[in-house]
Amino acid sequence: MRSLLLFILLFVSVFSLLGCSDSKTKKISNKPVKKVSTTISALPKQVMDPKGNVNSFEKIELGRLLFFDPILSGNKDVACATCHHPSTGYAEFLDISIGANAKGFGSKRKFNSPNDIPFVKRNAQTIINTAFNGINTYNKYNPGDAPMFWDDRVKSLEKQALEPIKAFEEMRGHGFSESEILEEVVSRLNQIPEYRELFNTAFGDANISIENLGKAIAAFERSLITNNSRFDQFMRGDNDAILISEKEGFELFKKVGCVNCHNGPMFSDYKVHVLGVPQNSKLELPDAGVKDSFGFRTPSLRNLRYTAPYMHNGSLKTLKRVLEFYEDIANGKSRNPLVPKEKFDPFVRELELSVKEMSLIISFLNTLNDDDFDKSIPEKVPSGLSVGGNIH
Fold first, then answer.
1. pLDDT at residue 158 greater than cutoff 80
2. What would the 3-class secondary structure string for the chain be?
């Protein structure tokens, strides 16, 4: 009997210890997410070129012509500039773009009739400062391996420049397959003497290739930078470059947790985060993002004046609505039925915002605007087609 009693006491003791261990483990797993160590600085004064595409005036000017020439599209009706025009900060004031088989500019752009081409499913990000994509908190970056697009599907401006040409709803349209279109475009360019001469001057080769097509457009895009905003001036030592309220907004930006994802000189960690952004009703199918996770790459916060509406699908029209959306996430509210709150990024679940803080943070974000960028538009393009595509 005594042995049985000792066995029972021993069993209870062990069970109690195991229970304590489980409780302790559970408590550790529920700890708030640890804030990351971040640094914010001014943008570099100079742009780095990839080793295989050192920039030159000739490449930039050639790239500019190509950027505005609709000969790059399947039906010769869409240019890169159609959705990334200098008058709108090389972005577009639409939630999602209308590419092939359409005419008009901005809010007046409409599909032709009949039409079976869908909307471009994601918001047109600005080309400005993409030369710095991938830059980290130590001002280090590799332009040959720079992340591009909302889903980070290609690296470098050279590869990015070719993707819209291949996309059915953006520039390709009907008539050519994805595997055919780049060869078709290069064939067209090779038939235009002026382009052959320009490529020969820029690359030392009159025989135009797909690779040099991407390099020329990338060279032009890499020249579009705004690295002297009021915030940049402030970070370089001019304490009067931004107002007291804007400085307060900067401190709040860091304090409430925005800085955990929006850091470095470009205010982006270039990582993928799940936020549960509301769906855009114009799209027939939900955009599931990177690897069907509903995650998207953190965008830069520079030049937000030119990039509204916001988020990957343009579903939030103002900065105030963006901050209210983050407040909802922090309060456990889901704005997308396909993304349960359990999947929200841990960082955004930790945000704590008030109405007063929102207004101060928005004041700070305005210091990141800089309209001193190249807005020049060619009077004509070598193909003889309409500059910028069918936008008039």
1. yes
2. CHHHHHHHHHHHHHHHHHHHHHHHHHHHHCCCCCCCCCCCCCCCCCCCCCCCCCCCHHHHHHHHHHHHCHHHCCCCCECHHHHCEHHHCCECCCCCCCCCCEECCHHHCEECCCCCCCCCCCCCCCCCCHHHCCCCCCCCCCHHHCEECCCCCEECHHHHCCHHHHCHHHHHCCCCCCCCHHHHHHHHHHCCHHHHHHHHHHHCCCCCCHHHHHHHHHHHHHCCCCCCCHHHHHHCCCCCCCCHHHHHHHHHHHHCCHHHCCCCCCCCCCCEEECCCCCCCCCCCCCCEHHHCCEEECCCCCCHHHCCCECCCCCECCHHHHHHHHHHHHCCCCCCCCCCHHHCCHHHHCCCCCHHHHHHHHHHHHHHCCCCCCCCCCCCCCCCCCCCECCC
pLDDT tens digits along 49-99: 999 999 999 999 999 999 999 999 999 999 999 999 999 999 999 999 999
The two tokens of residue 44 are 């570099």
Average pLDDT in the chain? 91
Tokens of 322: 């963006």
Polymer length in residues for the chain: 392
pLDDT digits (tens, 9 = 90+) for 313-361: 999 999 999 999 998 888 888 899 999 989 999 888 878 888 788 999 9
* Complete domains list, the chain, with CATH: 57-222 (1.10.760.10), 230-368 (1.10.760.10)
The answer to whether 302 touches 225, Cβ cutoff 8 Å, is: no
pTM: 0.90
State how far Cα 354 lies from the chain centre: 27
Percent of the chain with pLDDT over 90: 84
